Amino acid sequence: MKKLVILGGGYGGMQLLSSIIPHLPYNLMVILIDKVPFHFLKTEYYAIAAGTVQDQSLQIPFPKHPQVSIIQAEVEKIDLEKNKVWLSDGNPIAYNDLIIGLGCEDDYHQVEGADKYTHSIQTISKSKHTHKHLQGLPDNGKVAIIGGGLSGVELAAELAESKKLQIALFDRGNAILSAYPKKVRNYVERWFETKKVIVYKNSEITRIEENLVYNHGSPMPFDCIVWTAGIQPNKIVRALDVEKDKKGRIFLSKYHHLPSNEHVFVVGDCASLNHPPSAQLARGQAEQIAFVLISKWQGKLLPYHMPPIKLKGVLGSLGKKDGFGLIAKTALTGRIPRLIKRGVLWKDKIKKAK
Q: What domain of life does the native source organism fall in (predicted)?
């Protein structure tokens, strides 16, 4: 039988698997490889770290099918010339078609000590480890969050509302959530003021030591330091000898495969696309990859142009009752975006659990 190997059961891998299962040809076996036995809602890892949700509530089982095999393992390397994927246990898996959806890792931007002395919310295991450390802090313990993007803001808000901690949020720009309209940024900053979260704008983190953040060269003591200041493609992808953009993401054809190899596709955070990485983008891309694969299986010609991936917007949480968002270029703040996000998560769980 031919083998389609999917590396990573994140948003892209999960959407792809769900989309192709009804259309699998009889002579194809699908192998999904992931470090964990479930799909996890990664956008909510900040709540795992804060301890306001349990990891079980973010688990979604992978779809079951006689032609689908799930392997819980870690990928060691990809051999594009020999069409093989090597696992950490030393076993190779051959493929006819490959989907690379290995996700991202923290990008420490060469800040000395950041990789050693900061905590992370990039994986479920790291988020749980971060929670364990935060849980052990005394009342009024000092927490530094490096990075004022969506992840950093949501984590800071969740901690400020649920814990008796002193929270400081560092961002290198003139404002947190720089990709959002001014209305949203101002609302979030006012919310932080009411919760006594200190926001350090125009920060320049030059070094991290144990319990010390050096901002513009000056040391500031903290009991816990969490890094949310950027991502980069998985190390396995970074090691591949293929053409990439300045951020290390792989350039693709209009059909989402390598320009030189129509049997190797890349989905999600490792793909060089026209939008910043997001769960929504990964899903949209996965749907198009599924369309390409199904068309090939059915002997259909692919369209000369693929339609643009439509993104509906972005939603963020400020604790349990407040939120913010940008939907169809409309800025939203307050309770409504939080309710919408809660509904989207509920719908996502129900849809994928079926």
A: Bacteria
Homologous superfamily of 2-35+73-105+231-310:
FAD/NAD(P)-binding domain (3.50.50.60)
- How many Cα neighbours within 13 Å face the side chain of 249? 22
Model confidence pLDDT, tens digit, residues 278-301: 999 999 999 999 999 999 999 999
Distance (Å, whole) CA 251 – CA 282: 15
Question: Could you tell me which of 24, 217, 10 has the C-alpha nearest to residue 122?
Answer: 10
pLDDT in tens, 226-257: 999 999 999 999 999 999 999 999 999 999 99
pTM, two decimal places: 0.94
CA–CA distances in Å: residue 206 to residues 42, 106, 214: 29, 17, 6
**Distance between CA atoms of 63 and 38, rounded to whole angstroms?**
10
Give the side-chain half-sphere CA count within 13 A for 66.
4
Q: Are 8 and 101 in contact (CB under 8 A)?
A: yes
